């Protein structure tokens, strides 16, 4: 299997999260990607799941997305975009 293109995946994830301006904070712990959003209604959860998310938990304006070992790499690429 080829390695995922994390820059491409990170761009897609940002798009699915409602754009870079919709993201106010991001944290990663092990396999979980926690993101705080200005407007959670802009999120495309179906798109995020198609990217390989094993689960999405929404609490108020926060999403916790389970991405497995790719979570850290995705956050790093999104940090580069911001």
Structural notes for this entry:
- The protein has 82 residues and is an alpha+beta fold.
- The chain contains 3 helices and 4 strands.
- Strands 1-2-4-3 form a 4-stranded antiparallel sheet, covered by helices on one side.
- Helix 1 crosses helix 3.
- The longest helix is centred in the first third of the chain and has 11 residues.
- The model has no long low-confidence stretch (mean pLDDT 92).
Structural class call reads: alpha+beta
What spatial order of strands do you see in the largest sheet? 1-2-4-3
Number of helices: 3
Report the strand count.
Answer: 4
* Oligomerization category of the chains in this entry: single chain
Q: What's the gyration radius in Å?
A: 11 Å
Unreliable stretches covering 5 or more consecutive residues: none
Separation of the first and last Cα atoms:
30 Å
Share of residues in strands: 25-35%
Residues in helices, as a percent range: 25-40%
Largest beta sheet, briefly? 4 strands, antiparallel
SSE succession: HEEHEEH
Mean of pLDDT: 92
Shape field: globular
Summarize the topology.
Elements: H1 6-16, E1 23-29, E2 32-37, H2 45-50, E3 55-59, E4 62-66, H3 71-81
Antiparallel strand pairs: 1-2, 2-4, 3-4
Helix pairs in contact: 1-3
Entry summary:
With 82 residues, the protein is α+β, with helices and mostly antiparallel strands. It is built from three helices and four strands; from the N terminus they run αββαββα. A four-stranded antiparallel sheet has the order 1-2-4-3, with helices on one face.
